[in-house]
């Protein structure tokens, strides 16, 4: 460390940081209070817990530690499972456990149980105790003292204890502060869980086309006089032309919906989404989205990519602008803020399977939205209302 | 070898410079092919009449295969519009910026769409989860996976 000020270490983030003093030091990132000033190089907190199994430090073959853990197990079995509890002398269920040290001293801990006390309380379903947790662990509950007890693996014990104490448990994922498995203890942790769930959800993500699908797409090499030369690629918005620097740009892939693209333009797209960029024809089944008709998964809008929306999308739309006006239809509908159009779209759910729409389009591949010069009313395909409304 | 994004963006920029933007949309700054700024106004009758917003586009080298990261600029003198799909940090929950992006769309098409999103708004309010989202939101809205589950607004 080059800095003169001593760094602090957050035991919750497991990271060095400069704490916020408010007025007690808390971690700047997690706001946890389990922070330690790193002053003594012989007691570097970063060393702690870096072992795969932190309990090897404490446990391992240390019989003293075994005793302690045995005692803790007994405590947990009694404390958490009322059925196992033996009534104590004082009316409540007393719990004690003791640790015998090798130096002959015995430490006894315990006292009256305050959890779930009361004879009138119906027995709760047993909380999984340590024996359950360990699965193959010893079956006979009850106090066990001494070295003749079964040995519990340090790793399992560590997991159990960390789970018990709400700490970080590698087995439960990257638990942040305030989290333990599925449990959260504060708003921030809840936010994190929700964010994580949202991010992990891929139900709305487009499904890429498989290589099988892309390899079998028809490819044409442009030649002199090809009708393709009058069209353009909706991805790069360039016209197909001969004599390009990149010979790959003279290879045209035509999707089943009849929309042509430069091979180097369409292949990367299909690797991220197996749909036609113009009409959202699905080459591979796409996830059902939010149930609104104009989304790519359930309603590719057919080959009529040059179709204009059946309504005026806004006073600002300039004619001839916005290549791929077909997309306007789906984007206006797909945009979740566009309520006034939804009324006109909602009855589309009853339309026939939209994945078949490519064959019903009256327009050929010539009618594409990416050709601004052609996009006039004479190209208005009738299939919009069929496909999308 | 120029990347696919530069070629495409150059084409879009030329078109904007030659033909201008649709009414209410103006190019503010496009000094490179990474970040562009536009001003956005909603024309005609709307809840946002007379208000001007700034949109920031950030492009990856894979544009237009990958969608641009689009958000309203929020700074000391700029605010994001109050809209059920616009968070107070400027992030926008719009499916076309996420799972429904298509390379056929363009920068101006996105502007027009967002303009239309504002124009059709019936009630100025923040998304219900605004506070929660803004607290934990990443810098780049593309890192957020929005759920486009609200079609009613």
From TrEMBL, chain A:
GO molecular function terms noted in the UniProt entry: ubiquitin protein ligase activity; zinc ion binding
Keywords: Metal-binding, Zinc, Zinc-finger
Biased composition regions of type Low complexity, renumbered to the chain: 298-317
Gene Ontology CC entries for this record: cytoplasm
Tagged with keyword S-adenosyl-L-methionine: no
Stored SMART domains: RING
Claim: Nucleotidyltransferase is one of the keywords in the record: no
Basic and acidic residues bias locations: 368-378
Any one Gene Ontology BP term: protein ubiquitination
Occurrences of domain RING-type (ranges): 233-280
Region described as Disordered: spans on this chain: 110-148, 287-389
Biased composition (Polar residues): 338-349
InterPro entries tied to this protein: Znf_RING, Znf_RING/FYVE/PHD
Domain of life of the native organism: Eukaryota
Protein name: RING-type domain-containing protein
From TrEMBL, chain B:
InterPro entries named among the record's database cross-references: Ub_conjugating_enzyme (IPR050113), UBC (IPR000608), UBQ-conjugating_enzyme/RWD (IPR016135)
Domain of life: Eukaryota
Gene3D superfamilies: Ubiquitin Conjugating Enzyme (3.10.110.10)
The keyword RNA-binding appears for this protein: no
SUPFAM superfamilies: UBC-like
Keyword entries, A-Z: Ubl conjugation pathway
Domain UBC core: 4-153
Record-given protein name: Ubiquitin-conjugating enzyme/RWD-like protein
């Amino acid at each position: 460390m080059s800095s003169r000020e001593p760094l602090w270490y957050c035991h919750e983030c497991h990271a060095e940081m400069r704490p916020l003093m408010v007025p007690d030091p808390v971690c700047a990132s997690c706001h946890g209070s389990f922070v330690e000033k790193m002053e003594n190089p012989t007691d570097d907190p970063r060393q702690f817990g870096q072992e795969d199994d932190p309990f090897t430090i404490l446990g391992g073959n240390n019989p003293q530690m075994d005793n302690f853990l045995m005692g803790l197990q007994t405590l947990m079995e009694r404390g958490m499972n009322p059925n196992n509890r033996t009534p104590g002398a004082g009316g409540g269920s007393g719990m004690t456990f003791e640790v015998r040290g090798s130096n002959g001293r015995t430490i006894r801990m315990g006292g009256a149980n305050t959890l779930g006390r009361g004879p009138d309380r119906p027995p709760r379903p047993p909380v999984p105790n340590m024996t359950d947790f360990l699965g193959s662990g010893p079956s006979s509950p009850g106090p066990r003292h001494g070295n003749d007890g079964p040995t519990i693996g340090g790793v399992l014990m560590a997991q159990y204890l960390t789970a018990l104490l709400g700490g970080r448990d590698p087995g439960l994922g990257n638990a942040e502060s305030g989290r333990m498995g599925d449990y959260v203890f504060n708003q921030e942790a809840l936010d994190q869980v929700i964010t994580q769930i949202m991010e992990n959800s891929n139900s709305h993500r487009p499904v890429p086309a498989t290589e099988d699908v892309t390899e079998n797409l028809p490819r044409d090499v442009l030649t002199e006089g090809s009708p393709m030369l009058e069209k353009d690629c909706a991805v790069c918005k360039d016209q197909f032309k001969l004599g390009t620097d990149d010979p790959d740009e003279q290879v045209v892939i035509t999707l089943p919906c009849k929309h042509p693209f430069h091979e180097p333009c369409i292949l990367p797209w299909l690797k991220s989404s197996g749909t036609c960029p113009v009409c959202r024809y699905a080459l591979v089944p796409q996830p059902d989205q939010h149930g609104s008709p104009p989304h790519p998964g359930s309603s590719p809008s057919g080959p009529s990519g040059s179709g204009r929306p059946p309504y005026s999308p806004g006073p600002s739309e300039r004619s001839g602008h916005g290549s791929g006006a077909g997309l306007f239809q789906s984007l206006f509908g797909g945009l979740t803020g566009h309520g006034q159009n939804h009324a006109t779209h909602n009855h589309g759910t009853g339309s026939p399977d939209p994945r078949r729409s490519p064959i019903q389009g009256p327009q050929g591949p010539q009618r594409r939205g990416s050709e601004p010069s052609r996009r006039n009313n004479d190209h208005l395909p009738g299939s919009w209302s069929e496909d999308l409304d | 070898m120029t990347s696919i994004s530069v070629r495409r963006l150059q084409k879009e920029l030329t078109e904007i410079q030659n033909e201008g933007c649709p009414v209410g949309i103006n190019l503010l700054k496009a000094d490179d092919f990474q970040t562009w700024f536009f001003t956005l106004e909603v024309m005609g009758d709307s809840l946002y009449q007379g208000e001007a917003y700034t949109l920031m586009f950030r492009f990856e080298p894979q544009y237009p295969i990958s969608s641009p990261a689009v958000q309203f600029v929020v700074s000391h003198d700029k605010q994001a519009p109050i809209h059920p799909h616009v968070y107070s940090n400027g992030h926008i929950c719009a499916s076309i910026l996420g799972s429904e992006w298509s390379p056929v769309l363009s920068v101006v098409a996105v502007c027009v769409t967002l303009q239309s999103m504002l124009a059709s708004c019936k009630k100025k309010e923040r998304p219900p989860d605004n506070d929660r989202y803004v607290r934990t939101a990443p810098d780049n809205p593309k890192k957020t996976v929005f759920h486009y589950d609200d079609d009613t607004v």
